[in-house]
Amino acid sequence: MPQIALLTALLLILEGLYGYFGAAADDRSMTALIPLFFGVPIGISGLFAMKDSYRMHAMHAAVSFGLLGAFAAWGRTVMTVGKMSQGMEYNQRAAMMVLIMAIICTGFVIMCVRSFIAARKRQRAEKAEE
């Protein structure tokens, strides 16, 4: 799972950089870097998780940031859909970037939860064998 955390972090960091530097110079906003702000702590946690003794706590920290990122991005997506349904103006590029962040973070959280469940089952099986 540390590799998945690092890949997720890389995707979020690249998305943030693309969102910021890919916009026209007069249209840049610091909010475009929000995926980067979630990717960095996930990446740091992923690096710590490379060491066995830190793995459990580091991955729980990583999935916490992933979950916060997913909630934030899906919340923003719902707000944008509300604007769309009312015929209000919205930034299509920003809406797409937020949706991508939501998908990346949600996928990461799902993979982490599945991994945590599998680890718990392995622990129970090992204890039953003793």
UniProtKB/TrEMBL annotation:
Keywords: Membrane, Transmembrane, Transmembrane helix. The chain crosses the membrane at residues 29-50, 57-74, 94-117. The keyword Transmembrane applies. This is Uncharacterized protein.
